[in-house]
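Moderator note: this is an archived Q&A kept for reference. The question asked for a predicted structure of one protein chain; the sequence and the answer are reproduced below.
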Amino acid sequence: MVRRTKEEAQETRAQIIEAAERAFHKRGVARTTLADIAELAGVTRGAIYWHFNNKAELVQALLDTLHEGLDPLARATENEDELDPLGCMRQLLMQLVHQLVLDPRTRRINEILHHKCEFTDDMCEIRQQRQSSTLECHNGILLAMNNAVRREQLPADLNTERAALALFAYIDGLIGRWLLLPDGFDLLGDACKWVDTGLDMLRLSPALRK
């Protein structure tokens, strides 16, 4: 009986996350209430509060689903024993692009995060959550770059702090631009070129040297 209850709780949690995704995508995060999400999910508000304290935790849950398929490659890039950290980073970025373009759910969640998550005064918790997630991502990129420098895949005098920030800004901007104007350029067909442009910046830009 306990096992069944846990399974039901997980199913309810998944329903709530799916409903939050649909509501946030349609109305934006700021204009969506927990009551809206409860109605879409077919549960009570109490059921939502059992799993999530606020909308910030729901946004984080959506963000976590984006990382699930990418985590093994991310861990590989950050592992000091990885022989090809830059190659793993390239695979990670390629997989990110493919999921974004080919998986409707990944695209919707990215649209929410990039264009429908307003940082109004009453959304300070979501702003703080996004700040923490961005710093976590930056630190992961920084570890990967330091590993690539040790493996002599990137220049020894690379300013890895600046380079990590530049790569994040490049990829994040590329994604945001494509989501806003998907017909403006071929993100999927030219995925190799877009990813390699970012990596070439790390290898070749004099402005990224110490």
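Archived answer notes: The mean pLDDT is 91.
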